[in-house]
Design a protein that fits this description.
The strands form six sheets. A four-stranded antiparallel β-sheet has the order 3-2-1-24, with no helix packed on it. The protein has a single domain, classed as TolB, C-terminal domain (Neuraminidase). The chain contains two helices and 24 strands. Helix content is about 5%, strand content about 40%. By secondary structure, the protein is mainly beta. It is globular.
Length: about 325
């Protein structure tokens, strides 16, 4: 997991707030998704002080820097009430922070001093009482999904069949996660307390790191061809039982790449990053793929790990 995060973070372009203002994203420097009114969109961006988490309004205005950590903050996930964000701290730790950047809490690791273990990719359970996360044990070479209370107690291993980007289904019954070899990574699901892992998506040249459950639990949304730059990357949905695969975008050129972020809290929209000729834009579209709408036009601004949260309750 350490190497994977280093590659992901290292690929984020460095963008200053002054440059963002040029792109119409002015602002002070300062979820998985759940049914609710739409709130702010969180994402990771490289800053002068490492990779940090930012949020903005769904119209692309009011950029705010949430984290100011010494190191890197990545993979934000909103709490169900829209008040907190779980994230990966410095590649190998799980942390939670208030949406305004205050009250940073690091979840104690099972083995705090173990250099060969990493914990990250956290997301909240639908009731907000626990987190699921990826834990990699370098000694045993086991990549697993675990759950934990918000104070770090009551740890439970859910599956050792894989681990990246675990997310709990809206009804709380299933945990989805990524697993598989390079160019064949897929979304799998397993019961919240374990059991046999079942493939949800076909391989499709490797599903991209970020995917999401629909708020009604009837579909998951994902990006194909993440590890095959000879093909375009497109966004598709599929039912949790692996049926009804439908493409929402239909880009045809290898340098046209649509990377899904998440559903909006009520499930009406999907937010994603579009890459064309090495430039990046932030878009939203209806859950059926129609109604494409630019949030931010093409620029050097490259949001990663995009998560659309609910309005704070």
């Amino acid at each position: 997991m350490r190497g994977r995060y280093a590659r992901l973070i290292g690929s984020i372009g460095s963008v200053t707030l002054a440059a963002l203002a040029m792109f119409g994203v002015a602002g002070p420097a300062a979820r998985a998704t759940f049914p609710a009114h739409p709130g702010r969109i969180a994402f990771t961006l490289e800053s002068e002080h490492g990779s940090q988490i930012y949020t903005m309004r769904p119209n692309g205005h009011d950029l705010r820097q949430v984290t100011h950590v010494d190191g890197d903050a990545a993979a934000p996930d909103w709490s169900p009430d829209g008040r907190r964000i779980a994230f990966t701290l410095n590649e190998c730790n799980v942390a939670i922070v208030d949406a305004d950047g205050s009250d940073l809490t690091v979840i104690p690791r099972a083995e705090p001093n173990a250099e060969d273990s990493c914990e990250g990719d956290p997301s909240f359970t639908p009731d907000g009482s626990r987190l699921v996360f990826e834990r990699y044990d370098g000694v045993l070479d086991i990549d697993a999904v675990w759950s934990v209370d918000l104070d770090g107690s009551d740890r439970e291993m859910i599956t050792d069949a894989g681990g990246p980007d675990p997310n709990v289904s809206p009804d709380g019954r299933w945990v989805g996660f990524l697993a598989g070899p390079e160019r064949a990574q897929r979304v799998f699901r397993v019961g919240i307390h374990g059991g046999d892992a079942v493939a949800v998506t076909p391989a499709l040249y490797g599903v991209a790191f970020k995917w999401d459950w629909a708020p009604d639990g009837n579909h998951v949304v994902f990006t194909d061809n993440a590890d095959n730059t000879e093909h375009p990357a497109n966004i598709a949905t599929i039912r949790p039982d692996g049926t009804d695969l439908r493409y929402l975008t239909h880009y045809r050129q290898p340098d046209e790449r649509a990377y899904v972020g998440s559903y909006s809290p009520a499930g009406h929209w999907i937010v994603f990053r579009l890459e064309v000729d090495g430039r990046f834009a932030l878009y939203r579209m209806r859950a059926n793929g129609r109604g494409l709408h630019a949030i931010l036009g093409f620029s050097e601004f490259k949001p990663r790990f995009i998560d659309w949260g609910p309005a704070a309750g």
